[in-house]
């Protein structure tokens, strides 16, 4: 080759090789850093979604508990209504007798 015969061309060739090698290494480093940035973003979004899911689950549990309490209250009121209706029926039958 021409570069092997000429000292200056050989040095220039080596310099260009080193610069290209450095560029490739820098490019790989940039790509790796970008990959980790994207990965961290995804991990942050996943963590946020997990927190939101946990909050939604807690809210659902609370709503279910409130529903159970409401059903219990309604059942108690139904019993009270039945007792009052029975008492009213007794009172009416006592007045009719």
Structure notes:
- With 97 residues, the chain is an all-alpha fold.
- Helices cover 97% and strands 0% of the residues.
- The protein has helices at residues 2-5, 7-96.
- The longest helix is centred in the middle third of the chain and has 90 residues, at 7-96.
Structural class: mainly alpha
Following the backbone from N to C, one meets helices and strands in this order, namely HH
Treating each run of at least 4 consecutive H or I residues as one helix, how many helices? 2
Report the strand count.
0
Biggest pleated-sheet summary: none
How far apart, in Å, are the first and last alpha carbons?
A: 131 Å
C-alpha Rg, in Å?
41 Å
User: What's the number of structural domains?
Assistant: 1
Q: Quick check: average pLDDT?
A: 89
Helical amount? over 70%
Percent strand? under 5%
Overall shape? rod-shaped
Residue ranges: pLDDT <50 for 5 or more in a row?
Answer: none
Task: Provide key terms for this protein.
single chain, 97 residues, 2 helices
In short:
With 97 residues, the chain is an all-alpha fold. It has helices at residues 2-5, 7-96. It contains 2 helices and no strands.
Element layout with pairings:
Elements lengths: L1 H4 L1 H90 L1
């Amino acid at each position: 080759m021409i570069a092997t015969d000429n000292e200056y061309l050989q040095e220039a060739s080596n310099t260009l090789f080193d610069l290209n090698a450095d560029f490739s290494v820098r490019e790989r480093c940039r790509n790796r850093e970008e990959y980790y940035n994207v990965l961290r973003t995804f991990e942050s979004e996943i963590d946020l979604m997990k927190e939101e899911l946990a909050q939604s689950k807690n809210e659902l549990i609370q709503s279910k508990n409130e529903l159970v309490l409401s059903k219990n209250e309604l059942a108690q009121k139904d019993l009270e209504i039945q007792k009052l209706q029975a008492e009213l029926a007794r009172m009416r039958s006592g007045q009719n007798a």
